[in-house]
Amino acid sequence: MKLVPLGDRVVLKQLEAEETTKSGIVLPGQAQEKPQQAEVIAVGPGGVVEGKEVKMEVKVGNKVIYSKYAGTEVKLDGEEYIIVKQNDILAIVE
Amino acid sequence: MKLVPLGDRVVLKQLEAEETTKSGIVLPGQAQEKPQQAEVIAVGPGGVVEGKEVKMEVKVGNKVIYSKYAGTEVKLDGEEYIIVKQNDILAIVE
Amino acid sequence: MKLVPLGDRVVLKQLEAEETTKSGIVLPGQAQEKPQQAEVIAVGPGGVVEGKEVKMEVKVGNKVIYSKYAGTEVKLDGEEYIIVKQNDILAIVE
Amino acid sequence: MKLVPLGDRVVLKQLEAEETTKSGIVLPGQAQEKPQQAEVIAVGPGGVVEGKEVKMEVKVGNKVIYSKYAGTEVKLDGEEYIIVKQNDILAIVE
Amino acid sequence: MKLVPLGDRVVLKQLEAEETTKSGIVLPGQAQEKPQQAEVIAVGPGGVVEGKEVKMEVKVGNKVIYSKYAGTEVKLDGEEYIIVKQNDILAIVE
Amino acid sequence: MKLVPLGDRVVLKQLEAEETTKSGIVLPGQAQEKPQQAEVIAVGPGGVVEGKEVKMEVKVGNKVIYSKYAGTEVKLDGEEYIIVKQNDILAIVE
Amino acid sequence: MKLVPLGDRVVLKQLEAEETTKSGIVLPGQAQEKPQQAEVIAVGPGGVVEGKEVKMEVKVGNKVIYSKYAGTEVKLDGEEYIIVKQNDILAIVE
User: Fold this and answer.
1) Cβ–Cβ of G49/A93 closer than 8 Å?
2) β-pairing verdict for A72-76 and B3-5
3) Residue G3 in contact with residue G75, Cβ under 8 Å?
4) E50, E33 in Cβ contact below 8 A?
5) Please, which residues 10-29 of chain E have a Cβ atom closer than 8 Å to chain F?
6) Residues D39-76 pLDDT 10s
């Protein structure tokens, strides 16, 4: 099964947060800051979205930084994804 | 009786949530997270909605992921449906 | 006396909620969920509303589902009506 | 003295609420629901308002239903009026 | 010194509220309802404001009714003025 | 060092508030109302800002009244400035 | 690794706040006001963003003042950056 995003939506997969603080303490998942880096898994077709032309600029495989409070978490086949609008992607990490 | 959605509205039917957690405990309906997967039952004609041209991209029978807090629950002939705007559908599951 | 709606407004009359739950208990009016089905009583002319062209798609006599929190309740000659914008009508029931 | 409304504004004068409930009890002004019927006293010229073309559709003397929470109450020569935007008028009562 | 309003701004000077209630009690300034009548002291040039063409319709010397919660109070040479956008002026009093 | 504002931004320097109330009491800075008069120090180029054409109407040296809650306070070389959008300037004082 | 901003986004690096108050007391990081001066590290391509044409006006290396509550803090290779929309940059410091 795969996710095919609509319009200007992009499917992201979060990159693993570093599990260890600088002082060497291993943090359990909860106590960590939510990492904002993710990999692009699928990209919508763009086009006219809410009456505005959107051109898709990210590609599958891009590492991106996305806006902390944006997106919808989705679970598919036990994997977690985040679906955001392209405009919530701030930058590509090269 | 059937629902004929107006404008950019789409009628969805939620897919059954898995009733069992990984540890094997059966959850009653309430305690389960609301599943976000649904099947498209009917699709509005699109066209100019709130002054913006909307082209319908989903089709009857598509399995879709929709935005958690979107939509209106509707009961017809004892069946429950959700009516959302197409823009609240995030992705098609293929 | 009759109501002649302006712009994209539609006058609705709520259809009676079923007074009996599945277990056979008769509910007084208060305890019932507000039914969302209504009949279209009058339809505004449409045209340019708030700077946007609106084409009216519902007709007098249509049974419709409308958005739960939308509309203004109006009493005329002891009868209760709801006036909604067409965009708050989600679907026609056929 | 008279009020000459600007743009898409309409001056209304509330019609008297019925002072007696169905059971025959006379209610003091406070306890009554604010009546939503009003008579049109003056109509603005319309034209471009907030960048949108507005055509005035109500006429002086029309009985109208207006949105419960809309409008500004104004007192002139001891008389009370309500000034609303035409878009807050829901329907004409004929 | 004088105020020259920009864009669709209008400088108003409040007209004195009647200091006496109907029962003849003289109210101190605080206890009175803020009067909504004002005289137009200066009128901006209009033109394109926030991307929308605005034509000025009020003139210096007009008595006007303005929206209760609109405007900014300004003190110049010990005199108090209110600066509003023309759209917050509801009607001219003739 | 100097501030070169972008788009429709304007750099203002507040004019000194009168330090003495009418009764002759000298107020410390805190207890005074924030003065709304300021001098224009620098003016952005205008042009298309947020998709809307903005023409700059104020000039360096103008005394202006600006909206009380608008703007961002900025400190540069120990001097305090306020940067506002031109639309938050209500009037020029001549 | 480097950040390549999308659309009208700009990557900033905060300039060091002066660590000493006028009275000579050295403040720890927390107690200091967040400095609003930053250096431009990378500039997005501009173009049509949310349906509006945006022309980029800042350049890499510019010292800028940005809006206090704007932007998203991002950590990359142990360095902290702020990503803002160009419209949240108030002025260039020359």
Assistant:
1) no
2) unpaired
3) no
4) no
5) 11
6) 999 999 999 998 899 999 999 999 999 987 889 999 88
Q: Are A11 and A40 in contact (CB under 8 A)?
A: yes
> Does F75 map to a domain?
yes
* Cβ <8 Å between E3 and F93: yes
Q: Does residue D90 contact residue C72 with C-beta atoms inside 8 Å?
A: yes
The closest CB to that of A89, out of G1, G2, G6, belongs to G6
C91 has a chain B CB within 8 A of its CB? yes
Residue A65 lies in a domain: yes
For residue G51, being part of any structural domain is answered with: yes
User: Would you give the DSSP letter of residue G34?
Assistant: P
Cα gap B24→B22, rounded to integer Å: 5
The residue range of the domain holding A64 is 9-17+26-93
Q: Closest approach of chain C CAs to the CA of B49, in angstroms?
A: 8
E42 with E74: CB under 8 angstroms?
no
Structure confidence at residue A43 (pLDDT): 98
8 Å CB contact of A5 and B90: yes
Whether A58 and A43 have beta carbons less than 8 Å apart is answered as yes
Structure tokens at F30: 């805190």
pTM score, two decimals? 0.82
- What would the DSSP string read from start to end of chain D? --EEE-TTEEEEEEPPPPSB-TTSPBPPGGGSPPP-EEEEEEE---EEETTEEE-----TT-EEEE-TT-SEEEEETTEEEEEEEGGGEEEEE-
Least confident of B69-73, D19-23, D61-65: D19-23
Q: Is F81 on the interface with E (CB under 8 A)?
A: no
Backbone angles phi, psi at E86, to 5 degrees: -55, -35
Tell me the one-letter amino acid at D86: Q
Set of chain F residues whose Cβ sits within 8 Å of the Cβ of E74 = 36, 65, 90-91
Chain G's closest residue to A36, CA to CA, is G74
C68 touches chain B (CB under 8 A): yes
Number of domains in chain E: 1
Nearest to G87 among F50, F76, F83 (CB): F50
Instruction: List the single residue in G with minimal CA-CA distance to F45.
Output: G57
The reply to whether D62 falls in a domain is no
Torsion of CA D86, D91, D93, D94, to 10 degrees: 100
Q: Which two tokens stand for residue G43?
A: 């500039």
Residue-wise pLDDT for A7-36, tens only, equals: 999 999 998 755 455 555 555 544 445 558
CATH number at residue B94: 2.30.33.40
Q: How far apart are CA D14 and CA B92, in angstroms?
A: 53
F12 exposure class (CB count in 10 Å sphere: 0-12, 13-18, 19+): buried
* Cβ–Cβ below 8 Å for E6 and F52: no
